[in-house]
Structure of Alpha/beta hydrolase family protein:
Amino acid sequence: MKLLKRFGILLALLIIILLSIGCIYQNSKSKKDVKNYHPVGSIYEIKNKKMHIYTGGNGDATVVFAAGWGTVNPYIDFYPLYDGVSKFAKFAVYDRFGYGYSDFTDEKRDVDSVVDEVHELLIKSEQRPPYILVGHSLASVETIRFAQKYKDEVKGIVLIDGGNPEMYASQKPATFIASFQRQLIKFGIARILYNTEGFADSVNSERNNLKLIPEELKEVDKISTLLRGSNRNIIDEMRMSQENAKKVCEGDKLGSIPLTIITAGSFEKQNSDWLESQKKLKEWSENSKQFVVENAQHYIHQYKPDIIIKEIEEIAKKMK
């Protein structure tokens, strides 16, 4: 028993020492990463914090991109889309607080705060409605809420495998995985794993291994993840997801605002509840359609961006 107790103490000390070394390693490398991690767009002060937005293109409408939960760098994530969109419309890719090149915030990540921050950012950066909102995954909640609050400014919505608010409202948020990932990053374990063969591909498997992203941006994506992945703002978004979805469900439907629901054919393929909830999303608008993109996972824009661009352009043409 004494030997076992000593072994346990030594093992605990060894773990503490290794975690301490990992933390020092992560902090040292992070300082170097920060020096090379520069905003690609413009920064504006929103609620006494800095918020980032990347804009471009020409046209009468402005396409506003909202990244899915936990997608740390929206500028990189939407790379396959905004170049094509820029040929017929303006575009704006924003970083919520905690994402991309925006600051962290102490404000709760309730949906109204998020939407009001985005709206203020669009005004300060001199974006002009009409807006076509494009939301991926959980961003469907803030996208629909934006349309509820600023209905006259929104002329169309495209959801990229965006979840039905009614579905999110019925699910208890799971923050355990994100909290665990945060510890992997904090103690340098994730950084070490990134240096092992095949790890990056496994992390990005749902994003088509970033095949449509230039090599230099893949490196920035990795840096973004190691600097900001699963941070407190991101975890708080998930923690409040059910409450946020309930608030959206209590609001008005979208009326005649065009709503296009693009569903991934390979994501949760065996989950009939998810597919059924995607069909029911059509009920949110009197002018809606929903279709499935086969051979595409949750990040459809990393597999078949041309399909999404075409749907956005279709809404833009009807606005003229």
Notes: The radius of gyration is 21 Å.
